[in-house]
Structures are given as structure tokens and as C-alpha cells.
């Protein structure tokens, strides 16, 4: 009876290897948009549509539990995982690190979506977009902000048409303080747009923004359906899963 890990994060890769080494039969799933993960267990890339959907895959591969270690903003996948787990009667656990909390010196504005964010960006000179891929409609609005420049950093090349005002940087985290400081000073960034991922891999941009007095526009985490267990540390996750399989 296998454990299906819905991955795509650094935590997902670490947990996949640790659980595999603990003797648990692990299948690690990723979207496959960025790169193939280097893990010891079996990897499934490209989603579950190719197998007739998640429920069909779980039945066919005798999956006895789901561990969701996707990005906290992977709302569709996390929701599907809970719904399918309830349908099939298998447990679904979720590992998401605690969200970042503002510290002294931070200047954060929390927004729910781009509709709320765009008016707050209009008066800025250089916007650092670090919240993942951006839709063409959003880019078109940003391009209309006279005199503004944007720096878009993503792991995968955008599939949209970028305006002359926007520069794309390809980069895959984790990012350290020196890297983030160099980007923000080189481009004279005066606002950072970010998702509240939590953890240490991308927190450096918040530390640099704090030190340089740069405001941060933070997308709130989406609401997700309740999983059978919510785990906040790797240690707690390993203990929970191992106890179940033993």
C-alpha cells in the first residue's frame, strides 16, 4: 500500500527521501513544469489527467494515504486531494509551513488578489514581481502604468507577451540575502510583490525589504478544505506518517 506525496517543493523532496528510507513505498508526484526532482522513490510527472484522474490513479496504484506537500497556493490540487480522499476513504494529510509574520520594521500590505493589488502598484517606479506566473491581463494593466518598470522573476519562462517595461529573470530558489539585496539595489526596487510561502527558502527577500525600507505587497494564503491532519514541521510530518504505516 503506497503513500502518494503531492510535491513540487523543497520540503516535498526531503520528505519523499526520508519516508522512502524509512521503508514506506512512496510515489512522488510533480507537475513537471520546472525540473524533474532528484528523489530516490518513484516519480510521476505531469499530473493525473494522463491516468484518468487522481481517483483512478489512487485505485490503480493501491494508494493508502495522500501527503499534500504542494505550495500553500496550489489551491486546486489541495482541494482535489481532500475531495478525492473523502470519496475513496483514504486519509489526506497536509504539510504547510507556518505563514510568515511581520516583524518590527516591516511594511506589509495584505491583499487577497490582483484586483486589490493593482491600484496599490500604480504609483510605484519599479515593481519586483516574485509571486509566480502572471496572467496576460495583469501584465497588460501594469504595462499601462506610465513610467513604471517591472522585474518579473520566475522559475519557468512566461508564456505571455511581456511589455517593454518588464524584464524577466529566470531563477530557482532558495535565495540568500546577498542575492536578494543585489537584485533590489540594482533595479532600484520600490515595492515587492510576494506570496506568503513560509519557510526559509525565500524569506531573504523580506529581510532585505525590511532593511532597505521597501514596502511589501503580500498575497494572503487561500482558504483550503480541512485535511485529516495539518503538519507544520518536517519532524512532525515524518512522525505522523511513519506511525500510520507502522
If you had to describe this structure to a student in words, what would you say it looks like?
The protein has 246 residues and is α/β, with parallel strands linked by helices. The protein contains eight helices and twelve strands. The strands form two sheets. Strands 3-2-1-4-5-12 form a six-stranded parallel beta sheet, with helices on both faces. The protein has a six-stranded parallel beta sheet with strand order 6-11-10-7-8-9, with helices on both faces. Strand 10 (191-195), helix 7 (204-212) and strand 11 (216-219) form a beta-alpha-beta unit. The N and C termini lie close together (12 Å). The model has no long low-confidence stretch (mean pLDDT 94).
Low-confidence stretches: none
Portion of residues within helices: 25-40%
Radius of gyration: 19 Å
Strand content: 15-25%
How many alpha or pi helices? 8
Task: Output the strand order for the largest sheet.
Answer: 3-2-1-4-5-12
Mean pLDDT: 94
Structural class: alpha/beta
Largest sheet: 6 strands, parallel
Distance between the termini: 12 Å
| Number of strand elements | 12
SSE topology sketch:
Layout (H helix, E strand, L loop, with lengths): L1 E5 L3 H12 L4 E5 L11 E4 L8 H7 L2 E6 L6 H14 L3 E4 L12 E4 L2 H8 L4 E5 L5 H8 L5 E6 L11 E5 L6 H10 L4 E5 L8 H9 L3 E4 L9 E3 L2 H12 L1
